[in-house]
Amino acid sequence: MGASPSRRRDSLSQVLLVALVGATVSALAAGGLAWSLGATTAADTFWTAGTVVALVAAVWWLVIALRRGKFGVDVIAVLSLGGTLAVGEYLAGALIGVMLATGQALEHAAERRATKDLRALLERAPKEARRRHGDDVETVPLAEVAIDDVLVVGPGEMLPVDARVASEWAMLDESALTGESVHVDVPAGHEVRSGAINAGGVIEIRATATADDSTYAGIVRLAREAAATSAPVVRLADRLAQWFLPLTLVVAATAWWWSGSAARAVAVLVVATPCPLLLAAPVAIVSGLSRASRMGVIVRGGGALENLARATTLVLDKTGTVTSGRPRGTDIVVAQGWSPSSVLRLAASADQFSPHVLARAIVDEARERGLALSPPTDVTEEAGKGISAVVDGTRVTVGNRELSDDPPPWVAAALSQASFDAAAIAWVTVDGRLVGAILLMDPIRSDAPRTIRRLRTAGIDRVIMLTGDRAAPAEQIGAVLGFDEVRSGQTPAEKVARVAAERERAVTVMVGDGVNDAPALATATVGVAMGARGATASSEAADVVLTTDRLDRLADAMLIARRSRRIALQSAAIGMVLSIVAMGFAAVGLLPPALGALLQEVIDLSVILNALRALRAGAGERPALTAGTQGLIRRFSAEHDVMRADLSLLRDTAHELAVGDRAAALVALRRTDAFVQDTLLPHEHAEDRSLYPALTRPLGSPEATATMSRMHAEIDRLAYRLHAHLDQAEATGSVALAQTEDLLACLYGLHALLSLHFAAEEESYFTLLPDASPSTGRSST
């Protein structure tokens, strides 16, 4: 397939700009060589040729600008080039030609944007469908599918049209439509939407709409319309030229009228040639683009970077953006006589070979806790119900389950906790008896809180979350991260409408990662895609792509954008002030055109050097860490990953105490105390001795780690109290009834404190690593 006409035009423009730069530079150099050899006529000829080439290009750019209703700095360039030819200042014209060509080339490179035709959306959509006729199945073009046709959809395939499930069950991945990461089990007769992926076995669906009228086609149309109506970016140089251009023309005309010499006017135009605008601003913007790309942020053009710098409203998707997008086990509630570890081990053993996203989360949880899994036999999996397998001679089932109207207290507790936490539940039975419930949630990214704080510091004053997910998890996440507004259950069309409304009020950034986010990304002033996991559609619709799976790169990009724009404005302002001073000298005859052109080169060099400061890190950006400090962070981060699974010992011990099994509680208390004394406390003490002092310089103050040190002191206090309880229990041979209340408080308190402490360190310190993927922690809230 050939390139699109717009892409061919863009390639042709690049070629012509390169040719223009080459021609003007060559003409200036050849003229300089001829002049040094005494061939002044040849030198003038070369310089004239360079000036004419630049003048033709400048006139063409001016015509294009006028057709678009723009009247900017290109006028000064045309007048100065034409003026040098008219008064015979050929060297000045050649110098201006080189500066003009170079500036346009830099600006084109800085503001060239990637296409927004969203080819990936079209390529992802199925072109054919398998239609059933009795016992036969035929492949037909998608356009031939009619309402009530029965279609066959294989594993991993997209549902081609909106339909109802004709099979007994369908397990679907709707993350591309809703952002919800958990697979959905849909019974027969229920409606499903095109764009969802069949995550189970072969299913049949009955079409309720044609392809053109289906959900996925609507998403494509929305994205195209949003991209087509996006406002064009106005050049920074043109905005500044609104007052600089009239001033230049007035000074030039006054000098001509006062002196009666056209050369005076040309001299004014030469020193006023807007190269500080045409060069400094693009150099600063390109420098910002370069810095951002080195940090894993691809900004598609200088216009996007400028808009990112001016943004005050941030709109976020939930799943895969502020959360990890992968469910994780958070708690295990068990029946009397069972321990959380034993229930989890049996469930994970049965789930080892299941492709279901919740099954993978259960297996990962068991492995993180270091549980030895047994090989399952006689494995069967039923869509909508779960998996059944024989593990160690017992029949284990994991998945959905119908509950009685009067469930036992532990079941009611699990349902209540899942409701409060907005968690999914996997019920576990052994030989037909319900023995446990595993709660799973999609955790917040550990870098999300720090990212939101940094963005607010950078100038974002309004943060909104739009998600297709349920209200309960969305509201909890919004409360934790301090969002100004949370809207759940949003369709792609509703997201587009909301983003469009915010864009009317302020410069708006939208961040998302799925197909359902692509129209909203194209609607926003700046669309940002979490592209690390191959979210092609959203990446194609976005102006900014985060190529690493880290939300905090958005804060880095915004700080870089703001600094680059500030330096661009500063450089342009310095250049214009110097040019205005030079214009005064030229107007009174103290600065001839050729000398003015050379002086303009000095001005250009000064503003370019200033613009290049955008390549360096600025205040508020990620602090620089020495290799030694990075090594310490990696060491303690790895220790967190190991210890996080052992934190469950605290809750397991509390469970044994709560159910009244004092013998089992003593055994669990010994294991917990051994973990705290031999692993946890040495880790915390080492952080105080080595990591925190190493962070003092990059964080700017020892107070930056003072809160964490205070947490360490409280952890030490609770650990001492826990050990004292163990000594007392060992002396009597069991945990006394009088110890129970305080011991439970110690266990739950230490668990909560450690969970908070781990999350705070990971958020504040571990995410400072330039190349690490932040941990998602253990909790969704």
From TrEMBL:
Alphabetized GO MF terms: ATP binding; ATP hydrolysis activity; ATPase-coupled monoatomic cation transmembrane transporter activity; cadmium ion transmembrane transporter activity; metal ion binding
Cellular component, GO annotation: plasma membrane
Chain segments annotated as transmembrane: 12-34, 46-66, 240-259, 265-286, 567-588
Domain Hemerythrin-like positions: 633-769
PROSITE patterns tied to this protein: ATPASE_E1_E2
Membrane disposition: Multi-pass membrane protein
Segments forming domain P-type ATPase A: 125-223
Pfam family membership, one: E1-E2_ATPase
Keywords: ATP-binding, Cell membrane, Membrane, Metal-binding, Nucleotide-binding, Translocase, Transmembrane, Transmembrane helix
InterPro entries found in the cross-reference section: ATPase_P-typ_cyto_dom_N, ATPase_P-typ_P_site, ATPase_P-typ_TM_dom_sf, ATPase_P-typ_transduc_dom_A_sf, ATPase_P-type_domA, Cation_Transport_ATPase_IB, HAD-like_sf, HAD_sf
Chief location bin: membrane
Compartments in which it is found: Cell membrane
Family label: Belongs to the cation transport ATPase (P-type) (TC 3.A.3) family. Type IB subfamily.
Protein name stated in the entry: ATPase P
Organism: Mycobacterium adipatum
Lineage: Bacteria, Bacillati, Actinomycetota, Actinomycetes, Mycobacteriales
